[in-house]
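user: Here is a favour to ask of a fellow structure person. I have my own habits and do not want them to colour yours. Could you put it straight underneath, so I can go through it closely?

assistant:
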Amino acid sequence: MHYKNYIFDLYGTLIDIHTDEKDPELWKFMVDYFDTHFGIKTTARKLKSDYKKICAEEVDKLAKRNGSAHPEIKIEWVWERLLGVPCSEAEMLDLCTAFREKSRVKFQLYPGVMDVFDKIRAGGGKIYLLSNAQRLFTERELELTGILDAFDDIFISSDMGIKKPDPNFIDSLMKKHSLVPSESVMIGNEVFADMGSAAAAGIDGIYLNTYNHRLSEIKKHLRKCGATESGIEVTIIDEGNECMKYVME
């Protein structure tokens, strides 16, 4: 199972993370943050409700602009509307970082990540990141886990306005680096987003069952996303949190 180009998903693949944006304490924290840093008074219930509403509105507007069935907004657009007052880039970064860090319940690298990267490098391979994520806080999380400099290139959906499984997302990476499909593989923990992208690009996929889905469910979704009929090879690694350890075997 050796290729020249390894395209990794991030969350649920390299980073074991759980966030809880429904936690009442998160929204109480943000109410205090708005008051302390911007002098804005609101309530937790209203802030949470407005956040969800504006997110949906921004997604809908972006979909109409770019025509993608899988649009990815910049989360700062939402906070700008919620604030309704001028906000510097530094202030926005601090706000989004505070929200993200407060919402995190679990955050760590999966076992074996660095070993896999070392093996890929030792074999002369390239390492790419293709992540449905927000640049504003994802870059910081890459730094915190020590893998920011591990990639030959990083593609984050909020930069592109589209996300997996929009085929244009993975295609942009493939074209930029002139990757040969037969020499490339997509590695991720989501069937539709990751294996669907692999199928669209005509590259093999390695599915990491880090969330312990039933095998019958995985195979059903592989058929639905087109991976089964695409002619690509999809390897399923069913080892829970230990999946990364088996990627290079």
